[in-house]
Structure formats: C-alpha cells, structure tokens
C-alpha cells in the first residue's frame, strides 16, 4: 500500500493577444509536496489585511482553504490502514530544515485529529543508526513505524551513498510509504511526458475524461536518441523562447529557458546526455498586479505571475484505491523577472486566490 500527498501545479495560458485560452499543467509533485501547512495561514493573513484596510465583505472572495487538515487526514487514513494503534508516524526530514513551520503545522494538525499518535522526526543520517527491520516490520528508535512521510530525498545532494540503503530498508518494510518508490517515480518528467501521449490515459479513465485531462497538458517532446528526438532538439534551438527544458530534478531552479536552453541543446544535441531532459512548450500566463513582500525590500506594486497548486490525497495498492480526496489549494506568485516559481529556492512568494 502507498500513500500520496500530491500537488498538481497549473498556470493560466494566454494567446499572443493576451486572451486567456485556458489552464495548463506545469507538473505533478508526488514527494515532499510543500506549503499545505502554510497556505491556510496565508489566507488568514490576507483576510486580516483586508479587514484592517476597511475592505469589509472582501474576505468572502478568498476561498476557504483547509489543506493542512485534509493532508493530515490523508496521513491518518494510512495510519488507520496499518491497523496498529501503538505504531508511530515517521517524518523523514533534512539535517537542517528551513521549511520547518510548514512541516510542524502538518504534524500538529495530525495530533489535533488523533492525540494518541506519536510523530517522530529523523534525518537520513539519524536513520542510518536507528532504523532496522524486524522481519518486514520497520523499527525506528525501537518503535514500530506505520507511515513513512518523506520531506527530503528528492534531490541528489540530499542523499549520501549510505542513505540509499536506508531508503531501500524502509521501502522493503510493511510501513506505508508517502510516497513509495513507485509513486515517487510516477511524478517524474518522463512519466508526465508519457501520460501526454495519445491512448495512454485511456488505460486508466474513460475516453471523455482522458480528452478533458489532455486539454490541460502543454505540448511535451522526448529528447531520446532518434529522429523524433532530433526534431525536438532543433525545435528548441530554433525557437528557444517557446519552450522550457526540464531535467529530472525537483526543488526549483533547475529548468532552462531562452538562450540558456538554446546553448545547452547545441552542446548536447549529439550526446546521450540529452535523454536526461524533456522539452515542454512554454505556457504564457497573464500578468497580474500584486505586491510581493520580501525581507529588506521596499514593498511596491508590480506585475506577477501566479501558479495554482491543487493538493490531493490518495491511498491504495495494485487492486484498490481506498482514499482519493481533494485536499486544498496553494497560490505561488513570482515577479516577471524570474522564470521559476519555487518558494524554497527563493523565486516566489506564497499567495491566495481572490475571486472577483
């Protein structure tokens, strides 16, 4: 059984005349999908600011957001499915955690729902010496683990060579992983590319639903060796501003645009290295006036691009899906001078949707 706390990210798309033509998916995050704990707090902050400005009634235009509680319920559903009330939930975290408030908010929401629960926080470094298998039961600090929730381990520099043994040990256990190795890989760019191909989604959903989902996908192109990949490389080189070059990396700051995209494709066009990337058609979101608050910067109104994240929880195995719920939302806004929208990477800011 595997648990997913998933966030799917979207941008509004517009044509050359600035007319909004729909919404397009940026990516699907299946590991360490962050800010579900902070998004409701940002909504409360914006409601407070509106009230202080005397704009009464405007708070109704801010949709309610219970993401931290619905995500907590997802973890508790996995704990319930494990069926041992004395087992603990393990948060696998960085050696130094910068996004601690988001993680703690989720932890405390879990404890609000189920006070009997114990949540352990351990880094991979700590787990090297305190995680063992007894049969297939995972023990950490001599406590049986029901759910392993990863908040790290999605970037190469987050794992030392010996940490892969720890990851394998936990994967082999009966503890419910969030995510399992399979679900982690399901969030990769190559899988996103594969799902966009005709006939693939139809294996999982009805044809009419597959057509609706496919409308959300931006055009994606493989860079595998061969004529199709060669053509995609030339498309990127000739029109670099129309595409994004995406590697298999998470955490923000990894994608290439414009001249950087062109230069790298020219460098690797005849190399096997190009297979590590996909070429995605660039989404053209509308610009929205806003004010991003940054430390040591004077607030000022500027044009921003806003990215919508939709959280979901899913619990299941090969045979059945036991939980499949919508779990709240997130808005991240960035200035037009940066192509990325990663908050932790320093490119954007948390925001709230405002319905007129």
Automatic annotation (TrEMBL):
Gene Ontology terms, MF aspect: ATP binding; glutathione binding; glutathione synthase activity; magnesium ion binding
Chain ranges of the Glutathione synthase substrate-binding domain: 87-186
Keywords: ATP-binding, Glutathione biosynthesis, Ligase, Magnesium, Metal-binding, Nucleotide-binding
Pfam families: GSH_synth_ATP, GSH_synthase
Reaction it catalyzes: gamma-L-glutamyl-(2S)-2-aminobutanoate + glycine + ATP = ophthalmate + ADP + phosphate + H(+); gamma-L-glutamyl-L-cysteine + glycine + ATP = glutathione + ADP + phosphate + H(+)
Keyword Nucleotide-binding: yes
This enzyme's EC code(s): 6.3.2.3
Cofactor binding annotation: Binds 1 Mg(2+) ion per subunit.
Positions bound to ATP: 27, 189, 246-255, 257, 280-283, 307, 334, 340
Record-annotated membrane-spanning stretches: none
Cofactors (names): Mg(2+)
GO cellular component: cytosol
Positions bound to substrate: 7, 103, 332
Pathway(s) this gene product operates in, as recorded in its UniProt entry: Sulfur metabolism; glutathione biosynthesis; glutathione from L-cysteine and L-glutamate: step 2/2
Role this protein plays: Catalyzes the production of glutathione from gamma-glutamylcysteine and glycine in an ATP-dependent manner. Glutathione (gamma-glutamylcysteinylglycine, GSH) is the most abundant intracellular thiol in living aerobic cells and is required for numerous processes including the protection of cells against oxidative damage, amino acid transport, the detoxification of foreign compounds, the maintenance of protein sulfhydryl groups in a reduced state and acts as a cofactor for a number of enzymes. Participates in ophthalmate biosynthesis in hepatocytes.
Subunit details: Homodimer.
Family: Belongs to the eukaryotic GSH synthase family.
Stated name of the protein: Glutathione synthetase
Organism annotation: Araneus ventricosus (Orbweaver spider)
Primary gene name: gss
């Amino acid at each position: 059984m595997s648990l997913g706390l998933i966030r799917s990210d979207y941008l509004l798309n517009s044509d050359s005349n600035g007319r909004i033509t729909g919404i397009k998916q940026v990516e699907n995050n299946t590991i360490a999908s962050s800010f579900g704990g902070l998004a409701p707090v940002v909504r409360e902050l914006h409601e407070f600011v509106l009230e202080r400005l005397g704009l009464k009634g405007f708070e109704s235009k801010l949709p309610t957001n219970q993401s931290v509680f619905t995500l907590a319920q997802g973890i508790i559903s996995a704990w319930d499915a494990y069926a041992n009330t004395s087992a603990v939930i393990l948060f696998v975290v960085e050696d130094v955690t910068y996004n601690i408030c988001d993680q703690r908010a989720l932890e405390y929401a879990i404890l609000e729902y189920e006070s009997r629960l114990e949540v352990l926080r351990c880094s991979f470094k700590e787990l090297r010496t305190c995680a063992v298998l007894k049969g297939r039961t995972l023990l950490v600090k001599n406590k049986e683990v029901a759910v392993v929730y990863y908040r790290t381990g999605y970037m190469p520099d987050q794992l030392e060579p010996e940490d892969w043994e720890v990851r394998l040990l936990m994967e082999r256990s009966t503890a419910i992983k969030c995510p399992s190795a399979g679900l982690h890989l399901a969030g990769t760019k190559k899988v996103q590319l594969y799902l966009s191909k005709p006939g693939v989604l139809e294996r999982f959903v009805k044809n009419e639903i597959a057509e609706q989902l496919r409308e959300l996908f931006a055009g994606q192109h493989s860079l595998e060796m061969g004529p199709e990949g060669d053509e995609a490389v030339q498309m990127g080189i000739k029109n670099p501003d129309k595409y994004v070059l995406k590697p298999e990396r998470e955490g923000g700051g990894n994608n290439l645009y414009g001249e950087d995209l062109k230069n790298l494709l020219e460098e690797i066009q005849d190399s096997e290295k190009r297979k590590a990337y996909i070429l995605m058609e660039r989404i053209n979101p509308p610009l929205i006036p806003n004010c991003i608050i940054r430390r040591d910067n004077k607030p000022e109104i500027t044009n921003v691009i806003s990215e919508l994240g939709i959280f979901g929880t899913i619990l299941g195995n090969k045979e059945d899906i036991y939980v499949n719920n919508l779990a709240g939302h997130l808005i991240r806004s960035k200035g037009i001078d940066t192509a990325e929208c990663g908050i932790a990477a320093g490119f954007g800011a948390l925001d709230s949707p405002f319905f007129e």
